[in-house]
Amino acid sequence: MAAEAIKRENSNFTAKLFTFLKYFILVFACLIVFIPLIVVFLGSLKNNTEFLSSNVFALPTEFEWSNYKTAFIDGKVLLGLRNTAIIIVISCTGTIITGTMTAYVLQRFKTTFGKILKAAFLLATLFPAISMQVTVYRIMNSFGLVGTMAAPIILYIGTDIISIYIFMQFLDNISYSLDESAIIDGANYFTVFFKIILPLLRPAIATVLIIKVISIYNDFYTPQLYMPSEELSVVSTSLYRFMGPYGAKWEIIFAGIVICIIPTLIIFLALQKQIYAGLVNGSVKE
Predict the structure, then answer these.
(1) Chunked mean pLDDT (size 10), the chain, 286 residues
(2) 128 backbone dihedrals φ, ψ, rounded to 5°
(3) What is the CATH number of domain 76-236?
(4) How far apart are CA 263 and CA 24, in angstroms?
(5) Potential cystine with 171: which of 12, 43, 102, 107 (Cβ 3.0-4.6 Å)?
(6) Rounded to an integer, what distance in angstroms lies between the CA atom of residue 186 and that of residue 202?
């Protein structure tokens, strides 16, 4: 009896310890996420003098709501949101069309060329993207695409190899018998792809769209390099004009960051169920 009591006590202690560690890790993770947001929000409500002299967690003595007006108007945030939306829509559409078609051909038709192409795709992912920027920039410049929206759009579509592998993984779960039955009934491969395969790839498309939209929305390097003009500024570069050789207007930059967070926050709150479903779809292969 004594041994059973000790064993039960040890089991209860282990369960309590595990519960404590679980909630401690969750609280710690929440703090990592929310503390920077709190610092940005408090900083956006201070003037320049107070921002530079006060503690980052200190409440502003006077709320400077004009920082948001300055960031929105002088930072041309609305223009940046419009340009970002245009790039996202075109790039995501192109990625879905080219990615699904490429994945279908590589996964369904087992040829030597297909194997070589898949190996080339895999090899390309091993090279750091920054190491090829000089060559890519020279190619874009030779076609006269630098300074236009076409440059980042082409790069977002043409370099998205990960999406092809995601589509190929989902295609592994779609039976070949669907293709064969449709072909026997007289359908060609284009009909099979658009009428059968593409609708079945909707979970994969949702996953790719989530990853793609987030990466484009957060990307700073590509728009800054290929679209340096103010007229072509996007969300990530519209606030960069508040950086200068003699200092930065951090309180206005923080206000602009809060403004740029709002659209993504609204989209996430409205579509969180679909986002979670898209991220986990295909994670388990049946």
Answers:
(1) 63 78 90 89 87 84 86 83 92 92 86 82 77 86 90 87 86 82 83 86 85 87 87 83 68 86 79 61 47
(2) -60, 135
(3) 1.10.3720.10
(4) 31
(5) 107
(6) 25
